[in-house]
Write a structure and sequence with these properties.
The complex is a heterodimer of chains A (210) and B (222).
Chain A: H1 6-24, H2 26-33, H3 41-61, H4 67-81, H5 88-108, H6 113-139, H7 142-158, H8 162-198
Chain B: H1 3-19, H2 23-39, H3 50-66, E1 72-74, E2 77-79, H4 81-103, H5 110-119, H6 123-155, H7 159-187, H8 204-221
Antiparallel strand pairs in B: 1-2
Helix pairs in contact in B: 1-4, 1-8, 2-4, 3-4, 5-6, 6-7
The chains are: A mainly alpha (210), B mainly alpha (222).
C-alpha cells in the first residue's frame, strides 16, 4: 500500500466512480426492465462486462498489484452509500469480480492481454455462481433442495432430460466467460489507445510496482 | 453512536442470522427493528418497498411446493407442511440478513467511512472513496454529454466507431480530472502514507450497545 502514490489513489477513486456511475444509472434501468427474480442473465452479463472493462482499463494507469480490487472496493462503497443501495447482493458481486480480476492478473504476472481477458472472463463468469452463492447465504441450506427440485420439475415440464438442463446452464456460463474475455481484451486495447492519445507511457511489466 | 457501533451491530446481526433458527430469527428481527428505529430510521424505509417483500416472501411461496412431501390439500393445491415451515424460516433468515446490512453498514455516511479507513491505516483508500464520491456527479455529467455529442454527430449511423470514441473520450476525460485532483492534492501537500490517523473514539452509546448485544446473545443461546 505504501507504494501507491497520490496519483494512484486518485485514479483508483475515479475509475471506481466511473464503474459506480454505470452501476447506478444503467444498472438501475436494467434492474427495472428485468427484475432480478425474472432474469439475472442479461443484467449480469451487461453489468459485469462493463465493470470488468472499466476496472481493467484503470489497471493500465495504476499498474500496482491490488489496484483492480481497490477500484472494486470503491465502487462497492459507492453502491453502498447511494440512496437505496444498501443491499448485500451487488456489494458482494462487485467485490468478488474485483478479487477474481486481481487473481487473474496475479497469475499473468506482467501486464498481458491474455491476463486481462482471463480477468474479464472470471469476473463476468462469477455472475453465474453469484445467485446460487447468495441464495445459499441468505436463505440457508434448504435452498439447495429447492434448486434440485426446480431443475427436475422444469426438465419434466419442458420434456427435456436433466442433462439437457445442465447443458443449458453450461452454455449460459460459457456465454458469460466469452463476454468477459472480450471485455478484458477490450480493456487492454482501450487502455493502450487512451495512453497513446494522451502521450502517456504505460509502464512495462518490469517497472510495475509489486 | 460512532461508526464502530454500526459496524459492530452489522457483524453481530450477520453472525446470528446464520446461527439462529426458528422463532429466534423473529427475536433477532425485533432487535434489528429496535436498533433501526433508534439509530437508523432512514434504513427502515427499505421495508416499504414491494421489491424487498417479493424477495423475502418468494421462499414462503415456493417452500410448500418444492420442499418435503405434500401432506395437506388446500383446494386444488397439494402442499407440504414441512416445506411451509422451512420456507418461513428461509424468509426469516433473508429478512434479518438483509436488515443487518441495511440498518448497520448502510447507515454510515461518507465521512464515517473515510474516518474508519483513516483510523485503520488505509488513509489512501479513504481518500480514493472521497474523490470518487465528490466527482461522481461530474463524471456522470461528462459521460452523458460525451454520449449525446457523439450521438448528435451521426453516432447512430456508425455505432461501433461511436462506441469506441465514447470509451476513449470518457477514459481520457476521467484521467484529465485526475490530473486536476492530483495538482490540488499536491498544493495542499497531501500524502496518503503520512499523517496522523484521525481520532474516532468509542462513545457511551457504543458501550451500551455492546452490553445490550451481549445480553441478547445470552438470551438467544440460553
Amino acid at each position: 500500500m505504501n507504494r501507491y502514490t497520490v496519483r494512484s489513489w486518485v485514479i483508483i477513486g475515479l475509475f471506481g466512480a466511473l464503474w459506480g456511475v454505470v452501476e447506478l444509472t444503467l444498472g438501475s434501468y436494467l434492474h427495472v426492465i428485468f427484475p432480478p427474480q425474472a432474469n439475472t442473465f442479461l443484467t449480469g452479463v451487461v453489468m459485469g462486462g462493463i465493470g470488468a472493462l472499466i476496472a481493467l482499463t484503470g489497471r493500465h494507469f495504476v499498474p500496482n498489484q491490488g489496484s483492480v480490487f481497490l477500484i472494486a472496493v470503491v465502487t462497492a462503497l459507492i453502491k453502498l452509500l447511494s440512496p437505496g443501495g444498501a443491499r448485500l447482493g451487488p456489494f458482494v458481486a462487485i467485490l468478488m469480480e474485483g478479487l477474481l480480476m486481481e487473481v487473474a492478473l496475479l497469475i499473468a504476472g506482467r501486464p498481458r492481454a491474455w491476463g486481462f481477458a482471463l480477468g474479464g472472463a472470471l469476473a463476468v463468469g462469477w455472475n453465474f455462481f453469484h445467485k446460487f452463492v447468495m441464495m445459499r447465504l441468505v436463505y440457508g441450506g434448504s435452498v439447495v433442495e429447492v434448486y434440485e427440485k426446480m431443475v427436475k420439475e422444469g426438465s419434466q415440464m419442458l420434456g427435456l432430460d436433466v442433462s439437457a438442463a445442465l447443458l443449458i446452464l453450461g452454455v449460459l456460463l460459457l456465454v458469460r466467460l466469452i463476454v468477459g474475455g472480450i471485455a478484458g481484451w477490450s480493456a487492454w486495447a482501450l487502455g493502450g489507445a487512451v495512453a497513446r492519445r494522451l502521450g502517456r507511457r504505460v509502464p512495462s511489466g518490469e517497472e510495475v510496482v509489486r | 453512536m460512532s461508526p464502530w457501533g454500526y459496524l459492530l451491530f452489522t457483524l453481530w446481526s450477520a453472525v446470528l442470522a446464520v446461527l439462529l433458527h426458528g422463532w429466534q430469527l423473529a427475536g433477532l428481527a425485533a432487535v434489528q427493528m429496535a436498533f433501526g428505529w433508534a439509530w437508523s430510521r432512514e434504513a427502515l424505509r427499505m421495508l416499504r418497498r414491494p421489491r424487498f417483500w417479493i424477495f423475502v416472501l418468494t421462499a414462503v411461496a415456493v417452500g410448500p411446493f418444492l420442499i418435503g412431501e405434500p401432506d395437506l390439500v388446500l383446494g386444488p393445491l397439494r402442499i407440504s407442511r414441512e416445506g411451509w415451515a422451512v420456507g418461513v424460516e428461509m424468509a426469516g433468515r433473508a429478512f434479518v440478513l438483509t436488515l443487518a446490512f441495511s440498518v448497520g453498514i448502510g447507515a454510515l455516511s461518507l465521512s464515517d467511512v473515510v474516518a474508519v479507513f483513516d483510523r485503520v491505516g488505509l488513509r489512501g483508500l479513504g481518500f480514493a472513496v472521497g474523490v470518487a464520491m465528490n466527482l461522481f456527479g461530474t463524471l456522470r455529467e461528462m459521460a452523458t454529454v460525451t454520449f449525446q455529442t457523439l450521438w448528435l454527430r451521426g453516432g447512430r449511423r456508425r455505432p461501433w466507431l461511436t462506441l469506441r470514441l465514447f470509451l476513449i473520450t470518457t477514459v481520457a476525460n476521467t484521467l484529465r480530472y485526475g490530473d486536476e485532483v492530483v495538482s490540488a492534492a499536491a498544493m495542499r501537500a497531501f500524502d496518503p502514507t503520512w499523517g496522523g490517523s484521525g481520532a474516532l473514539p468509542l462513545r457511551r452509546a457504543d458501550l451500551w450497545l455492546l452490553a445490550a448485544l451481549a445480553v441478547c446473545t445470552g438470551i438467544f443461546f440460553s
